[in-house]
């Protein structure tokens, strides 16, 4: 019986009912030890009953950190179903079980997709309940995979309950937090336990289960070896037993106990909880001996050997520490930064040398930050700074850690000060490292629009002894300053040089590459910026770099929006917002929402645009994020322009021009919008300043897409049809289709007024179609109005059936129309096949079809980035 948890029982019952009905659910049970979280998991298993498939595992305190070791006992009952998965996912999961001889988690994304696909396959015949106890003691890679898989489940009959201590909170998933039981309930519970213990003591031993404690000591040792050897590899267990002076007879006796089963060269615990119990209840000295024996047997598996060496250590041990350092370095490029942080931290704890200890703690803090574990990163940073071996280099690295946390949380000026102070601490011993900190400080100041602070950071950099790196390092800040001067060409040249130099450095960190991509975008090189960010986003996802992904996605979403790829931008930004909220990065939320507001303005969704700008302005007000505020204001101006509120629009645009960041290259569109608004107000004098700026930018960059904007504006001011026509050619050559449609709309209006109605209709019809496909409703309505004025007999209305689909439904339907199977679509979009089927089920009626064959009759191109 479970005492005093009525509300919690109701929540679990509701979760199970929803999952049984086809709505996958996940919940974290977070509580202090001894408050009943394990009892709630047992209750959930009883509630599920025999009609559910119940999969269980438990974390083990102080167990070796074997990557993906926690997945094996959870999924062991389902190993027979892995053969039906697609090839790459099947191979990755078989590697987890040790069936294939390949490094586990060579591709983390495929492991996640494989887990989703496997659970979905199991749920096709009966509901599936996954119970993970003491989840805070699972290995980091298993935790990350399980959480990532849980976030991708939607419409399957799957429920996942993970129970852990308070440190397991803040994963962005629903939580059930257990408060301590009341005094009365504790009294009832104590009385019940006393009765239970008395009944056990008087019970007859004849009915007792054939437990391992009744077996010889050798059998107990064999069971302990099987519990400690996390993969269930029979060959390894036999080698360890031989090292301990035991034979296969010990394992046979262990199997007769019923605690373990031996089959197909593998050892399993039918009840995964007993594995944890065996390990916890074994004497400390026996556990040490088994770990040492495992380390000796695993010379061909360095990662696993390292963790067993660490578990066998009773004090500082440089051999184990060095082995774990190697594990951490490999994890950062293969299995993810959360696991790397754990390996670095454990290596630090085992380090006998204070200097090595401090360096490893600093590395752990950096890896934790990249994994999105901000609080853990700050705790490790504090410990490092106060440790005996901390050198200026470690203090500087931790200044970067602290500054990134402050920046992501919206305290940009605090980030600037941390970096400047860190650079001062390092200037005499590591001047190039100090320069790196000052570049970060300059970027933080630039984000706030504080050009004087940028200049101060540059002056400090110039005083450093930078040797041959002096020119490229200074160029990275000089470019930012030059963009705000009258010599735009100099700024563009410097930034392009800096981008090329940084991209040639293979060891550049994500934060550096994001800054470089932002500079490229600011200099007008949007395609280069996109190339950098697409590759960076892929890397961050594979290595679960949740600490960096919101910044990457925010920058990528900005660039995609400027390129007119609104669907791609929305997908990146939405993912960025979700992760930023999970890891407590409000500054990144504000960044993404300000760009989503621009997209909402283009689509004419006034309510959403105003809501997002309000959120973005509130987020950015913490420490005056000038770029986010400018984006939000631009969104509101663009909304006014789209709906013909020209006075309100030009007031916003001109106010933005007075801001210190007005010269940024991403404001080419803003300058063009300002010219259009002035012309529509018949106030050409108010267009002269932005026209002059566009001319300077084209002279500096010679970019065709900027020339197209300049020609559009010349066409508006001078009534020059040739300028319009040439602008359309350039837009098309650069594949900037939203810009192309806006120019076509203006050109069509001019042609109609010039009494060239036949040509006007042709141009306007193309503009209307593109606006429709890009969901730019205010602009589409204006094009329809112009078409009617130009004599279109029956101006088309927005009736595209694809407009009824959600963004994800549209993605799924397009792939299905191209012939992809549900499993192939699931792999491509990181969904489960069941979720793909659900999207198709909802989409078919909207499109007026009943099956995949009918999709051939539907135009699914709307919302794409290209012209059709």
Q: Structural class given helices, strands, pairing? A: mainly alpha
Label the CATH architecture of the domain at 6-191.
3-Layer(aba) Sandwich
Identify the CATH class of the domain at 6-191. Alpha Beta
Mean pLDDT: 84
CATH superfamily of the domain at 6-191: P-loop containing nucleotide triphosphate hydrolases
Task: Summarize the helices and strands and which ones pair or pack.
Blueprint: H1 6-20, E1 25-30, H2 37-48, E2 53-58, H3 71-75, H4 87-96, H5 108-123, E3 128-133, H6 140-152, E4 158-164, E5 175-177, H7 183-202, H8 217-228, H9 234-243, H10 248-256, E6 261-263, E7 266-268, H11 272-281, H12 284-297, H13 302-312, H14 318-334, H15 337-349, H16 354-370, H17 374-385, H18 392-409, H19 412-426, H20 431-448, H21 451-462, H22 470-483, H23 488-503, H24 510-522, H25 526-542, H26 549-563, H27 566-582, H28 586-603, H29 606-620, H30 626-642, H31 646-657, H32 668-680, H33 688-701, H34 704-718, H35 721-734, H36 737-753, H37 757-773, H38 777-789, H39 807-817, H40 822-829, H41 833-847
Parallel strand pairs: 1-4, 1-5, 2-3, 3-4
Antiparallel strand pairs: 6-7
Helix pairs in contact: 1-2, 4-5, 5-6, 8-9, 8-10, 8-11, 8-12, 9-12, 12-13, 13-14, 14-15, 15-16, 16-17, 16-18, 17-18, 18-19, 18-20, 19-20, 20-21, 20-22, 21-22, 22-23, 23-24, 23-33, 24-25, 24-26, 25-26, 26-27, 26-28, 27-28, 28-29, 28-30, 29-30, 30-31, 31-32, 32-33, 32-34, 33-34, 34-35, 34-36, ...
Provide a descriptive summary of the structure in words.
This protein has a five-stranded parallel β-sheet, sandwiched between helices. A hairpin with a 2-residue loop joins strand 6 and strand 7. The chain has 41 helices and seven strands. Helix 8 packs across helix 10. Among the domains are: 186 residues, Rossmann fold; 101 residues, no CATH class; 91 residues, Serine Threonine Protein Phosphatase 5, Tetratricopeptide repeat (Alpha Horseshoe), CATH 1.25.40; 56 residues, Orthogonal Bundle (Arc Repressor Mutant, subunit A), CATH 1.10.10. The radius of gyration is 31 Å and the shape is globular. It is mainly α and 868 residues long.
């Amino acid at each position: 019986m479970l005492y005093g948890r009525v509300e919690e029982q109701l929540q679990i019952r509701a979760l199970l009912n929803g999952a049984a009905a086809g709505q996958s659910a996940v919940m974290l049970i977070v509580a202090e030890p001894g408050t009943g979280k394990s009892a709630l998991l047992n209750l959930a298993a009883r509630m599920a009953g025999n009609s559910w498939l119940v999969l269980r595992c438990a974390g083990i305190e102080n167990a070796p950190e074997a990557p993906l070791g926690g997945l094996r006992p959870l999924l062991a009952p389902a190993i027979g179903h892995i053969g039906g998965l697609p090839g790459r996912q099947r191979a990755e999961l078989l590697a987890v079980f040790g069936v294939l001889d390949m490094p586990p988690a060579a591709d983390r994304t495929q492991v996640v997709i494989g887990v989703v696909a496997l659970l979905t396959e199991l749920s096709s015949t009966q509901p599936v309940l996954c119970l993970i106890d003491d989840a805070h003691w699972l290995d980091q890679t298993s935790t990350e995979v399980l959480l990532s898989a849980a976030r991708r489940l939607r419409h399957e009959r799957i429920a996942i309950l993970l129970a852990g201590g308070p440190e397991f909170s803040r994963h962005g998933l629903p939580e059930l937090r257990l408060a301590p039981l009341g005094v009365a309930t504790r009294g009832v519970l104590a009385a019940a336990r006393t009765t239970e213990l008395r009944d056990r003591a008087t019970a007859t031993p004849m009915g007792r289960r054939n437990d391992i404690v009744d077996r010889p000591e050798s059998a107990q040792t064999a069971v302990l070896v099987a519990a400690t050897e996390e993969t269930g590899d029979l060959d390894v267990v036999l080698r360890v037993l031989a090292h301990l002076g035991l034979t296969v007879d010990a394992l046979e006796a262990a199997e007769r106990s019923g605690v373990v089963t031996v089959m197909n060269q593998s050892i399993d615990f039918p009840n995964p909880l007993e594995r944890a119990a065996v390990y916890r209840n074994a004497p400390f000295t026996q556990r040490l001996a088994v770990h040492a024996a495992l380390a000796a047997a695993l010379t061909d598996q360095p990662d696993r050997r390292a963790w067993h060496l660490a578990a066998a250590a009773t004090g500082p041990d440089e051999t184990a520490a060095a082995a774990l350092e190697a594990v951490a370095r490999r994890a950062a490029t293969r299995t993810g930064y959360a696991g790397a942080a754990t390996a670095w931290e454990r290596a630090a704890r085992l380090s006998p040398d204070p200097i090595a200890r401090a360096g490893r703690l600093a590395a752990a803090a950096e890896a934790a930050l990249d994994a999105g574990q901000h609080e853990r990163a700050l705790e490790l940073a504090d410990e490092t700074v106060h440790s005996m071996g901390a050198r200026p280099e470690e203090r500087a690295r931790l200044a970067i850690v602290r500054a990134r946390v402050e920046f992501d949380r919206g305290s940009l000026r605090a980030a600037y000060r941390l970096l400047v102070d860190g650079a001062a601490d390092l200037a005499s011993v590591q001047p190039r490292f100090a320069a790196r900190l000052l570049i970060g400080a300059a970027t933080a100041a630039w984000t706030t629009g504080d050009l004087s602070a940028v200049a101060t950071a540059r002056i400090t950099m110039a005083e450093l002894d930078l040797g041959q790196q002096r020119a490229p390092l200074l160029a990275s800040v000089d470019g930012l300053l030059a963009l705000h001067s009258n010599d735009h060409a100099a700024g563009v040249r410097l930034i392009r040089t800096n981008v090329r130099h940084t991209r040639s450095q293979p060891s550049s960190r994500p934060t550096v590459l994001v800054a470089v991509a932002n500079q490229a975008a600011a200099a007008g090189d949007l395609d280069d910026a996109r190339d950098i960010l697409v590759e960076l986003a892929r890397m961050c996802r594979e290595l679960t770099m949740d600490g960096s992904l919101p910044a990457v996605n925010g920058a990528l979403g900005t660039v995609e929006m400027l390129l007119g790829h609104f669907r791609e931008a929305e997908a990146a930004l939405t993912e960025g917002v979700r992760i930023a909220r999970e890891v407590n990065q409000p500054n990144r939320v504000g960044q993404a929402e300000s760009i989503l507001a621009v997209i909402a303005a283009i689509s004419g969704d006034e309510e959403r645009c105003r809501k997002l700008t309000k959120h973005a302005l509130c987020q950015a007000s913490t420490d005056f994020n000038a770029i986010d505020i400018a984006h939000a204001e631009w969104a509101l101006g663009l909304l006014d322009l789209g709906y013909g509120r020209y006075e309100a629009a030009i007031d916003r645009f001109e106010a933005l021009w007075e801001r210190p960041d007005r010269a940024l290259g991403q404001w080419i569109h803003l300058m063009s919008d300002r010219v259009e608004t002035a012309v529509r107000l018949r106030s050409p004098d108010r267009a002269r300043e932005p026209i002059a700026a566009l001319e300077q930018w084209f002279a500096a960059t010679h970019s065709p897409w900027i020339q197209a904007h300049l020609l559009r504006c010349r066409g508006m001011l001078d009534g020059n049809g040739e300028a319009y026509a040439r602008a359309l050619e350039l837009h098309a050559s650069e594949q900037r289709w939203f810009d192309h449609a806006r120019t076509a709309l203006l050109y069509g209006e001019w042609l109609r007024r010039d009494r060239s109605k036949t040509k006007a209709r042709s141009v306007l019809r193309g503009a209307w179609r593109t606006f429709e496909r890009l969901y730019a409703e205010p602009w589409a309505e204006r094009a329809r109005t112009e078409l009617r004025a130009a004599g279109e007999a029956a101006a088309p209305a927005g009736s595209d059936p694809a407009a009824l689909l959600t963004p994800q439904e549209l993605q799924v339907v397009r792939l299905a129309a191209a012939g992809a199977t549900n499993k192939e679509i699931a792999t491509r979009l990181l969904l489960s096949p069941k979720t793909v089927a659900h999207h198709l089920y909802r989409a078919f009626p909207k499109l007026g079809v009943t099956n995949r064959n009918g999709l051939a009759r539907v135009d699914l191109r709307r919302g794409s980035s290209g012209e059709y």
